[in-house]
Amino acid sequence: MPRKNPTQARSRARVERILEAAAQVVQEKGYDGATTNAIARRARTSIGSLYQFFPNKAALMHALALRYTDELRGLLGRALVPGVTALPWPQLVERIIDAFAEFHHTRAGFRAVWYGGHVSAELLACAFEAGRDIAASAEPLLVRLAPSLPAKDRALVARVATETVGALLILSVQAESQAHADRVIDEAKKVVVSYLARYAEIPASATKP
Amino acid sequence: MPRKNPTQARSRARVERILEAAAQVVQEKGYDGATTNAIARRARTSIGSLYQFFPNKAALMHALALRYTDELRGLLGRALVPGVTALPWPQLVERIIDAFAEFHHTRAGFRAVWYGGHVSAELLACAFEAGRDIAASAEPLLVRLAPSLPAKDRALVARVATETVGALLILSVQAESQAHADRVIDEAKKVVVSYLARYAEIPASATKP
Amino acid sequence: MPRKNPTQARSRARVERILEAAAQVVQEKGYDGATTNAIARRARTSIGSLYQFFPNKAALMHALALRYTDELRGLLGRALVPGVTALPWPQLVERIIDAFAEFHHTRAGFRAVWYGGHVSAELLACAFEAGRDIAASAEPLLVRLAPSLPAKDRALVARVATETVGALLILSVQAESQAHADRVIDEAKKVVVSYLARYAEIPASATKP
Amino acid sequence: MPRKNPTQARSRARVERILEAAAQVVQEKGYDGATTNAIARRARTSIGSLYQFFPNKAALMHALALRYTDELRGLLGRALVPGVTALPWPQLVERIIDAFAEFHHTRAGFRAVWYGGHVSAELLACAFEAGRDIAASAEPLLVRLAPSLPAKDRALVARVATETVGALLILSVQAESQAHADRVIDEAKKVVVSYLARYAEIPASATKP
DNA sequence: AATGAATGAGAATTCATTCAT
DNA sequence: AATGAATGAATTCTCATTCAT
Question: Which site in A183, B43, D148, D166 is 20 to 30 Å from C76, CA atoms measured?
Answer without folding.
Answer: D166
